[in-house]
Amino acid sequence: MNWKQKAMIQKFIAMLPSKLSYAVHYQFQRWFGGLRTVDPTQEHLVGAITIANYITRHGGTIDSKTFLELGPGRRVNLPIALWLCGASRIITVDINPYLKSKVVFENIAYLQKNEKRVASILGEYASRPIFRERFQQLLHAPCNLQALLKMLNIEYLAPADATHLDLPGESVDYYLSYNVLEYIPPEVLKHILLEGRRILRPGGLHVHSLDFSDWFAVSDHSISGIHFLQFNEEEWKYYAGNRYMYQNRLRVDDYVRALEESGLNSLIVDSVIDQRALQDLKSGFRLDEQFRGKSPETNATSRAWIVAARKGDEQTLTTTSVALACS
Question: Which of 32-41, 75-84, 88-97, 167-176 has the lowest mean pLDDT?
């Protein structure tokens, strides 16, 4: 689909009354977007084991720990995977109650039918007794969403304000997001990270997966992942200034800085550079002035994992090298 056509459709849907808007957007996702297919192993299970590996690299463990996930959207696949690996409690927070029972149980059914694939992705965690015990529970999961969440030890908070959570200070071991921070305005993100710092226990970690690509490029392959970096704020607001398509366009160095300003030090920044985007930049791709002071590698970074800890906690964690692809 041409990116401008998609922009206008999403803009129209966002202008509808809220209840109707959410319903129409859900159907749009089912017909054309990420909800067309069901395969939780492809993304969220891989994300969960990546998170587990980062935690282990810093001397931590998933067992009997409390996680907070920001922005689950329509599904709870990441919390399910963490529960299978041994997590004790998973709090998942969203600004809107997007969670859909139908989508959740479609994903549960997929997991139930693909135990070998799940086990192969979760690796050594799948060889543990707790995985086998919990997968058996999953095979006999209740058909009611609230009962299912209770069985999985998942607390779903929505609508909820992630800048002011009703949680005690230092009550969460790991604070997670999976391709969510990109959709939060910078001024709001600052307060979310400060709150994330407040509720993090000593020795705990923030683990964030970030996707820096222009999402219009997912459905329009004629444009590259840095397509949106050519627009100024007013132009970008015209195309994507709505609840469904907004992206803050922050780059990897901006997130490292935002975490630092929130009292968190980045221990790991694992970045992936989009080679097509890098070539476009070296060939003279026109950038808006706000991005011109950054290196081509920073602007062309398409994905990254960032692991951060409270300032002062670094000495209690296993030292790991940091590969930062930014200026």
Answer: 32-41
